[in-house]
Amino acid sequence: MSEPLDVPLTRPTEERDATRTLDTLATLMISALCILALYVAKSVFVPIAIAVLLSFVLSLPVRLLRRIGLNRVVAVLIVVIASLAVTFAISAALTRQVTELAVDLPKYQATITSKAGSLREMVFANGLMEKGASIFKGLGALGQKKDDAASAPPALGRGDEPRPIPVEVREAEPSPLSMLQTIVGTALSPLETIAIVVIFVIFILLQREDLRNRFISLVGTRDLQRTTVAMNDAAGRLSRFFLAQTLLNAAFGVVVAVGLYAIGVPGPLLFGMIGFLMRFVPYIGAIVAAGLPVALAAAVDPGWTMALETLALFLVLELAVGQFIEPLLYGRNTGLSPIAVVVAATFWTWLWGPIGLVLATPLTVCLVVLGRHVEQLNFLDVILGDAPALTPVEHFYQRMLVSDASEVADQAEAFLKTGSLIAYYDEVALNGLLMAESDFRRGVLHESRQKRIKETIDEMIDDLDDHADAPPAPAQPRETPIAEIGASDAPAAVGAPLDQAPPEQGPARKPVLCIAGRHPLDEAAAGLLAQILEKHGIGAKVEPADILRIGGILNLAGSGAQMICLSYLGSEAGAAQVRYAIRRLRRRLPDAKIIVGFWRCEAERASELCGQIRADACVTSLSEATAFFVAEAKAQEPAVAHAPAMPILAGAA
């Protein structure tokens, strides 16, 4: 006995699922190992990450120097030395300002004490706040009494030993040599990091092409041209983006320093540098950078004017830079989804501390770019990128599966802002139904689910009923026509231009009968066509596939339908099946014109099918079908006007 029919379909599916599961587990294991390595060896990876990001920033100046004729080594050394000179000059100025602030802080103690007393008086002047403060104070005193009672030594009775004498251990005063060792040890770690960063930056800039080629070889050389173009484009975009972001944030820091100097806040250069660094932190960077200068301004000024001016400076700058300058310079969008920005900041801060917070967005942008251009890392773009996780067609089908017609209508509303209703149906709805058709052929979409999809399509059609449709554009001539009208018994390809819609039909006139070829999915596609025809003044009625059976087709004999459209999704319809349906319709409605819609079918396959059936025309899109029916309606219009009474098909669409 042969195997059951579903065995060949189930076994490959199980094998694909097992392979996908193994790939997912392997990806998770590799990701966990990479995270563990980044955490354990962060003292090595942090300088490398900084060097990679700096190489993106400095690569453009190096290329500019190369264009004027300088040797690569000379250009790299000039750029690196100039960057180091600027860095050390700024560091020296910052060190001086930090020292001055440390010396001047005691001077501000009186102002801070006075303002703290004023705030306390304001709090206790409020009765509710005073009661709350007394409650918390009482709770604190109660806890203190319990702690004192628990820590008190037991009382000594007669004959007990005397209490032990407390002993206090004090460290000896540090010697000059130990102080020098402490200072050198504290400064050695940053100097070591700077040295590693400089070395890696030099070698990355010198070996840029070699590193690119090695990365391309690692990724794969199956499509060398595409990979090379993608890598060059990604590197160029990252370089321009990071350089623009660095310059913009540096300008932000300079303006902050100048503004604070004009306001009178001490240490303007220090806070300008903090503003420059914190601008790399999205959303909250500028707010965090404003905290210290605002607090210091409140401590320096006896009043609140300086603090308010400092806060206004940061607010105005952040609004101007974030809302106007950034979109004009390199676009507001960094390619990251908002949730990815927050998650990335949390992850890199946990992994590398404060330096991870500053590097979070640049590093994540690099990962997203790699995910977009490297097939093996595509999951990074899906998880972190701001591109929609599903295409419009996939989103349409997914919403159909859960019977969410309202969200599909919202998607259509967004599409209709720039496109027509018939374009949405052709480009999104029909392709979504094709995905359902594919699942049906695989045996995973049962009849009940097909009916739910068809009902959801009907709800969507009703929701979009108030949208007018622009006349479809003239269809482009095919290189190889499906068939030629009148040449033989073969059907014709339809692409007639639609200059204007025919006169509005009366409520009882339904000259077009849209019949589903096989199942409810074909009926859903027929419903889309019927609505478009109604939009163009042609009455249409939808019939299910059961109408083609003996009991149903007898009811069509007296309907007097002028035109019929058989609806089939895709190219899987059998020619014999379609030819049989056309033959039965010809017997009952010999005067009606019959066209067949092989929706979204490839041109070659449609031409092959049309050569084997005996229809008046074949179409592959709703725009072609609409153009055909409009042309036919215009051709029949004089005859209809002078004919005494032509029978037509009546009924609600």
From TrEMBL:
Keyword field: Cell membrane, Membrane, Transmembrane, Transmembrane helix, Transport
Organism: Methylocella silvestris (strain DSM 15510 / CIP 108128 / LMG 27833 / NCIMB 13906 / BL2)
Location in the cell: Cell membrane
Pfam families attached to this UniProt entry: AI-2E_transport (PF01594)
Superkingdom, taxonomy of origin: Bacteria
Protein name: AI-2E family transporter
Membrane topology, record value: Multi-pass membrane protein
Organism ancestry: Bacteria, Pseudomonadati, Pseudomonadota, Alphaproteobacteria, Hyphomicrobiales
UniProt-annotated stretches for the region Disordered: 146-165
Transmembrane segments: 21-39, 45-62, 74-94, 183-206, 241-263, 269-299, 311-330, 350-370
Recorded family membership: Belongs to the autoinducer-2 exporter (AI-2E) (TC 2.A.86) family.
Predominant location: membrane
Xref: PANTHER family: PERMEASE PERM-RELATED, TRANSMEMBRANE PROTEIN
Gene Ontology, cellular component aspect: plasma membrane
